Amino acid sequence: MISARVLRHPYWIVGSKYTNIRIFAFMKKILIINGPNLNLLGKREPLVYGDKKFGDYLKSLKILFPGTGISYFQSNIEGEIIGALQKADGKYTGVILNAGGYTHTSVAIGDAVKAISIPVIEVHISNVYSREPFRHVSYIAPAAKGVIAGFGLDSYRLAMESLLYA
User: Fold this and answer.
1) Quick check: is 86 in a domain?
2) Sheet harboring 20-24: ordered strands across?
3) Is residue 50, in this structure, part of any structural domain at all?
4) Predicted confidence (pLDDT) per residue in 98-111, tens digit
């Protein structure tokens, strides 16, 4: 007997006792944007940011969310991050943004987040609120759907779940 059941995930499983097939109702596309110095993950301050390279973590995210198109962009240049946000509008379901140090200084990136129609989740690997006082200010948070900070690289997984299931 073949049965279908709706899961928490954006697909149905149709199967029998011999096979299971995933049928995707729609594919969501998420863009992850990392800002300055995040290309150094795995080398830079491992006690704060961990010792895993982002490329390795990205592979695990793609395995964890097989029905989701995940794209990745990293830049140390403010204008390139703004350009990536603007190009994402209408092309992606949502954006996960770790603007790094620009979070606390860039009015322009905050304005770009305000200007687009898709949700943006601000993420930080470290708990910025337990660090230096200048890191407690975000020009992105007022326009973001939410902020996730302090869970290491797992902050990205939590943001994915928010964009996909909330």
Assistant:
1) yes
2) 3-6, 11-15, 20-24
3) yes
4) 999 999 999 999 99
